[in-house]
Write a structure and sequence with these properties.
The chain is an alpha+beta fold and 399 residues long. It has 3 domains: 7-131, Acyl-CoA dehydrogenase/oxidase, N-terminal domain (Butyryl-Coa Dehydrogenase, subunit A, domain 1); 133-245, Butyryl-CoA Dehydrogenase, subunit A, domain 2 (Beta Barrel), CATH 2.40.110.10; 250-392, Butyryl-CoA Dehydrogenase, subunit A, domain 3 (Up-down Bundle). The chain contains 12 helices and 10 strands.
Length: 399
């Protein structure tokens, strides 16, 4: 069995690396203080980075890299592995790329969307022009999406939507809601909802900011008041939204910024080599060496899940339990890495962005705060463990 990359894949990786180095601003690391495995410090979710984000994503679209995993009939290359390679490189350089449109909306539309949806949205997603936000969570519905209260009433050629969504990442900087709404309140819970696309500029859509624990405006609460949504924007079948969202969540759990972990580890290793404490380099401290070695091992373990998931997709299968395992490992690793970084940096690791004494521009302090968001989004760690137990191991559901 050969675990190495092919010459073509290695050449493609170098092409992506050369592109990113040439096109990202030289001071990008100082501007974008992002922590892997988290949701609150993603630069593409903040208004101040939109000019860079939109320009960069259009260039990625011109390269054809937003559709690497798509079928060839839709302009793709049928290569989840190449998409994973591009994602690994882009995340290593903390590039403001990807997002809900590319990683969640497009693959779901390809599988269950109508031909009209494909014609309208796939070209714009491929070009980097269309942005989406996830309209799933509500004030009383998070992990249990079947408990949503937002309604969509059938009015012939359109639905009228009323309700509220919350923790809506990037709603203020994107164009479309990827929304699950209740279309049949009388039906069984898991056959009562529909997945649909709602343009943000539709009358009745109100977006209000939520400032997160890191001081960033990445989250929002969104209100729908008599919002008219044409039926052509339904994704999949009416009242099958719960199952289509479960499909979309699998793609979200596969949309992992793998390279960002490797980057942080390299920075910590370099810091340990260059920093002296109590008269000797940190790199000679057994405790520091052990913690860094543990992180290196865990990151390699994570990469095994990452490449395996891409390989499974290239075999024409959807990695359901593998996606949950990858997401679980990914977000928990973000927490472990943040704790390790704070322990190694000591009091300096708690200094915020803007402090001249903060290592890595304050990334560690914000990462420590932000890392708690990872195990919650896209299904909590407890949900992922339940999926792995029941669907992967065949264990009975807990009572």
């Amino acid at each position: 069995m050969d675990f190495s990359f092919t010459p073509e894949q290695l050449a493609f990786r170098k092409e992506v690396e050369d592109f990113v180095k040439a096109e990202l601003p030289p001071d990008w690391d100082d501007q974008a203080v992002f922590w892997p495995g988290s949701y609150g410090t993603m630069p593409q979710m903040e208004s101040e980075f939109q000019e860079i984000t939109r320009r960069f994503n259009r260039m990625v679209g011109e390269k054809g890299w937003n559709r690497l995993g798509w079928p060839e009939e839709y302009g793709g290359r049928n290569s989840a592995m190449k998409a994973a390679i591009a994602g690994d490189v882009l995340s290593y350089y903390r590039a403001p790329a990807g997002g809900v449109a590319v990683t969640i909306a497009a693959p779901t539309i390809l599988l269950v969307g109508s031909e009209d949806l494909k014609r309208e949205f796939l070209p714009r997603i491929a070009s980097g022009e269309a942005g989406f936000w996830l309209a799933y969570s509500e004030p009383n519905a998070g992990s249990d999406l079947a408990a949503i209260k937002t309604t969509a009433v059938d009015r012939g050629d359109h639905f009228v939507v009323n309700g509220q969504k919350i923790w809506s990442s990037g709603a203020h900087v994107t164009e479309y809601a990827w929304a699950i709404v209740k279309t049949d309140p009388e039906a069984p819970r898991h056959r009562s909802a529909t997945l649909m696309i709602i343009p943000n500029d539709t009358p009745g859509v109100t977006i209000k900011p939520i400032i997160n624990i890191c001081g960033n405006h990445s989250f929002n609460e969104v209100f729908f008041d008599d919002v008219r949504v044409p039926k052509k924007y339904v994704v999949g079948e009416v009242n099958q939204g719960f199952y289509n969202v479960m499909l979309a969540l699998q793609f979200e759990r596969l949309a992992i910024g793998s390279g960002a972990f490797k980057r942080v580890l390299e920075e910590l290793v370099q810091y340990a080599k260059e920093t002296t404490r109590y008269g000797r380099p940190l790199a000679q401290d057994p405790h520091v060496r052990r913690r860094l070695a543990e992180m290196a091992i865990e990151i390699e373990m994570f990469y095994s899940f990452y490449w395996q998931s891409a390989w499974i997709q290239d075999q024409g299968r959807v990695p359901e339990t593998e996606a949950s395992a990858l997401k679980l490992f990914f977000t928990e690793l973000g927490v472990k890495l943040a704790n390790t970084a704070v322990d190694i940096l000591g009091p300096y690791g708690l200094l915020d962005k803007g402090s001249p004494w903060a290592p890595f521009g304050g990334r560690v302090a914000l990462g420590y705060l932000d890392s708690i968001s990872g195990p919650i989004g896209a299904g909590t760690s407890e949900i992922q463990k339940s999926i792995i137990a029941t669907r992967g191991l065949g264990l009975p559901r807990a009572r």
